[in-house]
Design the sequence.
């Protein structure tokens, strides 16, 4: 983790275009590559949850892709921490032109998609 903060006030409302926005922001950074900021809306709490039947080919689907050297440890961690596997596990994609050798699609407890890939 690179850091965390709680942001609110008029500037945050304008940035998010949400009146009364109060957010907890958690910043993640690996040894190399770009960082990721995760936003949790503390207020307002009237957002809609992701549909439980949301599929990867639905227009509303959104995912974050993380590149890793090995999938097996991450797939195991996902199973241990209530991260639902959408794919049956690590999927070999070498016969495809996907741009990576293997991948797994997961969904966190809030329904956010996370694609883990090995280049």
Sequence:
């Amino acid at each position: 983790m690179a850091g965390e903060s709680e942001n609110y006030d008029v500037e945050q409302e304008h940035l998010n275009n949400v009146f009364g926005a109060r957010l907890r922001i958690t910043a993640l950074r690996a040894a190399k590559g770009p960082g990721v900021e995760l936003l949790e809306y503390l207020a307002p709490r009237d957002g809609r949850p992701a549909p439980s039947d949301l599929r990867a080919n639905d227009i509303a689907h959104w995912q974050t892709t993380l590149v890793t050297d090995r999938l097996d440890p991450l797939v195991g961690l996902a199973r241990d921490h209530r991260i639902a596997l959408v794919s049956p596990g690590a999927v070999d994609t070498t016969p495809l032109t996907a741009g990576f050798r293997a991948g797994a699609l997961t969904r966190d407890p809030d329904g956010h998609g996370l694609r883990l890939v090995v280049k």
Q: What stands out?
A: The chain has a mean pLDDT of 87. The first strand starts at residue 3 and ends at 8.
